[in-house]
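Lab notebook page, bench 4
Experiment: in silico fold of construct C2
Operator: M.H.
Input chain length: 586 residues
Purpose: comparison with the prior construct
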Amino acid sequence: MDEVFKMIDYFNPFEYEAANKFTVDQILDFYIEDYNYSRFIRSRRNIFLVGERGTGKTMTLLYNSLPVQQIKADRERRPIGLDLICVYIPCNTPLTHKREYQLLDDFPASVVSEHFFVLSIMHAIANTLSKVPRLLEDANETQLREDLELVLDTKLQSDRSFFEGLKMMLQREVTKAQKAINAKTADAFYENAISFSAGVMPLVTCLKKIPSLEKSHFALMLDDAHDLNPHQIKALNSWIAYRDNTIFSFKVATTKVYRPSFLTASGGQILEGHDFTMVDMEQPYQSQYSNFGKLARQVVQRRLIKIGVSKTSEKFFPANPNFEKDIEASNELARKEAERKFPNGTPKQISDYVYKYGRAEYFRQRSTRANLAPYSGFDILVHLSTGVIRNLLEPCYWMYDKVISDKHAKTTEFTHVDEIPHSVQTNVILDRSKRKWEWIREGLDKSIEGCSREQAKQLYQLFDNLAVLFRERLLKHKSEPRAIAFTISDIDYQYYHELEHLLEIARKAQILYTYTSSAKDSGKREIYYVPNRVLWPDRGLDPHGQHARVSLKARHLWAAATDNRKIPFSERDEKEKQQRGLFDEL
């Protein structure tokens, strides 16, 4: 029996677990340095990395952390540079989640919160530097220990190495603080509370006396900052407002939907462009030619190398040849139509027309009784991801698993996988799409905090009606048939804030993403909404979409969600509906 399990054991290269569950080797093997934001991380600016789960925030921070870079340097047989010390600081930890501050009034609560936060940062710095070999070789460790004990007003254990003694001291301070609060002996405790200026800054100043760190800049990389409590967020913003980045800077990763406020402890506010630079990790354009498409291709090919496959991503995920042939025929029909409409048209006019109507023509020609389109090919997978790497890897994972399962049904021996047949791709894409709809209908309220059963029902009805609208546009619209994104007008509608709350739940569930862009009419920045494209295959839509968005009224979206009403396809539809009698069917 053990031999059988050994024979059928395999490694799925498209594992899409959270990056903090990866080994250092996996991080180094899988991380792609091109088309990402490492150049921002390795700057001396304060940076906010913003994006929903699966966009690569944690992977980017971990890859740039000093321990990972140390192992990378060892692999490449070169010394590591210490000009930049990137310290990874997870905020989703028991230490930053401590709720003792809730036992206190507002001011002491803020002191306690900052104390625990500062201790976690100091511990992360000590832990990071402890992994650098021979760091203290040229340092006067005795003098360093004495200086640190003096500025921190504490003692390090003499029988431990410098960094181990520092970590133990910090852990001891956590315990003392917790006992003091629980025992309600607050006065004694607050005398020993450590602020950023009394903890992190003196520590870094002392560490820079180590010859190897004399010119070092400390990049404090805070992951999942949305998990900090309100007092810690205000403290962090106050540190960012300090704006002297000669010694340290902050790299803050947070989700969009839970993004913390920019208020400081003093009541001020940090400003983008002035105090920090904002980097949106979600890329709105997905195609084989976009930056995201190029990144996606490298992500997949890097993982194929791990299983000994030298094929390109496109060859490993081949498209259904009949599907490709039919799309090309539809594009050719659109090209001929364009040449008739624009006899003196420029090449750009012709290509733009083909872009708008070629793929739409394919879906318009399909019989209403035909099966769903044979979705397949790497380019389809890129579009289905909606710009999120984890969304790209998830269907790939299940496709690879299905191929292995099908092979194991025939033999117990492991067989090499050199491509995913287009039929398997189609089956998995349609299955994942169907499952996503079922999850919205049946499991959303059980999975997303703050979502009630009624709200889950409303979201299902809203997305269901959006699918109907986009399907109708695909088959009938004369200008932008493949638009599958929308903006919201009529924001003075009385239930607009309730609609916003509903859409926020959808964003938490990652069935909806948001971007900002220039409005068509005024040039102002506006939010536009992109439903997760994995929803569309089950409804016969084209996940490719086009660079267009539909303006929808808040009242129509709210009616679609609460009353399951069809979203008007055009102004004519809306007028016809308004002219119906009181007892006409809606």
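Observations: Confidence is low (pLDDT under 50) at residues 1-8, 574-586. The first helix runs from residue 2 to 8.
Next step: discuss at group meeting.
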